[in-house]
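Fold this sequence, please.
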Amino acid sequence: MNMIVSKFGGSSLCDATHIKKVAQILKSDSSRVVAVVSAPGKRNKEDTKITDALYRCEKLVATGVSCKDEFEVIRERYLTIAKDLGVKGNIASALDEVYDNISKGAGKDYAASRGEYLNAVIISQYLGWNLIDASDVVLIEQDGTVNEQTYVDLKKAINPKEHYIFPGFYGRDTNGKVKTFSRGGSDISGAIVARSLGECLYENWTDVSGISKADPRIISDAKVIDKLTYNEVRELASVGFNVFHEEAIAPVREAGIPIQVKNTNKPEDKGTSIVASRDPLVVPIVGLTAKKGYFKIAIHKLFILKKPQVKVEIEAKLIEAGFSLEFILRGIDDLTYYAQGEDVAEETITQLINNLTQTHLLEEMEITSGFAIAAVTGVGLGHEKKKISLVASSLLEKGLDVEFVQLGASPITALFGIKEEQTNSVIHTLYDLLFR
């Protein structure tokens, strides 16, 4: 394992000062063969991410309005970065080309991808490294999955004795047009490059010294996790853990490639290792998280579980209305869904209840917002049954509501339905119980 793929997030590449830190990290170890880069992120709380500005440009053009003024802010940002780094290449002409293409209606994916592409152009020139355009080698299927040919093409494109800059977040579709992954997709790009190289280490550099046991914005002294598994990351990410993109685990998991999450501003910190397996007895539970924004969809009808077609039709209508059905609880006469659906209008909900109630002769149907799901995860969860059994009672003792407790659906995760406004209090209570 003598090759390293290093992915850097937008906060690590927001300006020339940060890019210089990244350059020092890359040059400190010649094994760092490929650097996967994001678009410049926010320099401060009031700043704008380049990708967000590019989305706005595309939206203006789509409504028939010029994006000239909006794009000038983007242009100035990149020209400043290039000037501060002493890069004198073709940045201005690259910016002109991007502006022209967006103005001519190149589309949302093209516009969004240019943040990474332009940053890669500048950084490759600054370091004197080879630039690989992701659209030349990454083939993304219509459903968002990566075509297997991608790994073959990438392996051919990379000489282990040279160094490369690779823009994350995008590739091309089967028609040859630029196509992006979902937001946070640079993590996916890094994992794709790592898998194409085979036996290597995938470093994911960000602005924190590893993955914490709980959101440090809620638990200020949350401890950093030393080691966790691919499955633990995926489970936590599915319930709001936003340090690592859950879809980025799949490529490296298949190849057994370890991930090291590191801090660009404190490269000496060990960070967090993400691996295939670990001893469940050393640290049984690794972390906890919570995800807000859930609707509770409660349905009551006599013997509903004996009418599977009714269940299928109800779920189809809920999905068609815009709900994402993430969790389901079943009783002999009851179905309860916890679903995301921030874009579902109140009028749509009212119509949905009326239509489903009449069509399927439902005795009761209620859709209410304001819920969250908390998750406790660890491969040793089964060895901590006593602690887990105390969670619900500990929450209730603090005056916190518990809508449901789900154990067994996943062998490594326990789920708790809670009220959205009580999320932070729940996180504090769980952290005190499990980790202090």
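The CA atoms of residues 300 and 364 lie 5 Å apart. The chain has two domains: 4-275, 287-435.
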